[in-house]
Design goal:
It comes from Paenibacillus thailandensis. Belongs to the glycosyltransferase 28 family. Helices cover 47% and strands 14% of the residues. The protein folds into two domains: 4-180, Rossmann fold; 187-356, Rossmann fold, CATH 3.40.50.2000. It has helices spanning 15-31, 42-46, 50-64, 66-75, 83-93, 97-104, 114-125, 158-166, 191-198, 220-225, 242-249, 268-274, 284-293, 306-316, 326-335, 339-356, 361-370, and strands at 4-10, 35-41, 108-111, 132-135, 152-155, 174-176, 205-209, 233-237, 259-262, 277-280, 297-299, 320-322. Strands 2-1-3-4-5-6 form a six-stranded parallel sheet, with helices on both faces. It has a six-stranded parallel sheet with strand order 9-8-7-10-11-12, sandwiched between helices. It is elongated and about 65 Å long. It is built from 17 helices and twelve strands. It is an alpha/beta fold.
């Protein structure tokens, strides 16, 4: 009997969609080694010249004009991708999608972005019989995710489920599983081992992340954190933004033994094990990883739209706080000076996580579908 095959399709409009696909693929192989998985960033794979240019343009808009992104998000909030848009996308980027599917013969297709979700939906209307599962990677339900050909929506919370139901999706086609994270985030690792691994000091530590694109804005609050550098170890992760990394490394404010500036890394899980507080933009994946680790989070500069909804969810449920003043920094940076207090708070967050979120639930749901 051949292995079950799962094709996971994403797009590069924000790193979280790809992260979710790779996390789910790794989790499926972890829980069931007999499964074969393939992940595709579909536009980049099928059109390697034009696809990255569109993603680059989107990235520049996010960094330079986030309000425009928010306006676009809100103006189309209730709308699914219409048939004309689906057809145009298919002809522009995905004319070979059906050929790829025919060649790989997957037993299931999982989409972690609305665009490939719409394209596969169109193929299903044209006769494709492969089950389509859609993982919504935020704590909101934008209309672009909705597709009548989806066999099952896997969503983060009951709030997202209810929003889909309000838009006509049958409850039987929705399962609340939480957003998938890589198995490395399922449990908290050994802090001392992580400190040794990175060559860091055993002292209160704050991890500052700008997302996969490294969108760290010039912000007085981020610079204010450096005033704590004699008492707090600061780790700045700027992702793939080499320009920001070079600017920070050449800035005397960040030149201190207790400050580490890092570019892209695949070891965020280990860094979260070390950190006492996570300062981050409220992307759905990063926040879910932080929640899974039980680390308190401070959210800065949410992009208007889904990041605002993500931020609201985690603040409302006690996993974080909006970083809107120097007083907020002083409050949290003072609290983590008391190691026992910080550990007790983290234990409380892990208990709260266990009540609301099972990191393996999404993967287990997919395995049930494949039986």
């Amino acid at each position: 009997m051949r292995k079950k095959r799962v094709m996971l399709l994403s797009e590069g409009f924000g790193s979280g969609h790809n992260q979710a696909a790779y996390a789910l693929a790794a989790s499926l192989r972890r829980l069931c080694p007999g499964i074969s998985t393939r992940v595709f960033e579909l536009g980049k794979f099928l059109n390697p010249r034009i696809g990255p240019l569109i993603v680059s343009a989107y990235r520049k808009t996010v960094s330079k004009q986030p309000k425009v992104v928010g306006l676009m998000y809100r103006s189309n909030y209730e709308k699914s991708l219409n048939r004309f848009t689906q057809l145009a996308l298919h002809r522009m980027f995905y004319t070979h999608t059906s050929q790829v599917i025919s060649q790989l013969k997957p037993d299931a297709i999982i989409c972690t972005h609305p665009v490939p979700n719409a394209v596969v939906g169109r193929l299903k209307r044209l006769g494709l019989n492969t089950p389509l599962y859609t993982v919504i990677t935020d704590y909101d339900a934008h209309g672009s995710w909705i597709n009548q050909e989806v066999n099952k929506f896997l969503v983060s919370t009951t709030v997202v489920r209810d929003k889909l139901v309000d838009r006509g999706v049958a409850p039987s086609r929705i399962e609340v599983t939480g957003i998938p994270v890589h198995p490395d985030f399922w449990t908290r690792g050994d802090r001392q081992e992580g400190l040794r691994h990175f060559g860091l000091k055993d002292m209160p530590t704050v991890l500052v992340m700008g997302g996969g694109w490294g969108l760290l804005y010039e912000d007085e609050l981020l610079e204010y954190m450096t005033q704590w550098r004699d008492k707090v170890q600061l780790i700045f992760c700027v992702g793939q933004n080499e320009k920001v990394q070079e600017e920070m490394q050449s800035n005397p404010i960040f030149n201190h033994p207790n400050i580490r500036i890092m570019g892209f890394t695949r070891e965020i899980s280990k860094l979260m094990d070390i950190a006492d507080v996570l300062v981050t933009k409220p992307g759905g994946m990063t926040c879910t990883e932080g929640m899974s680790k039980g680390i308190p989070m401070l959210f800065y500069h949410p992009i208007p739209g889904q990041e605002e909804e993500n931020c609201e969810y985690f603040v409302r449920n006690g996993f974080g706080e909006v970083l809107d003043s120097k007083a907020t920094i002083d409050k949290w940076f003072t609290m983590i000076q008391e190691h026992q207090t910080a550990e007790q708070f983290r234990s409380q967050l892990l208990a709260r996580r266990n009540q609301q979120y099972d990191p393996a639930a999404c993967t287990q749901a997919v395995l049930r579908f494949l039986q």
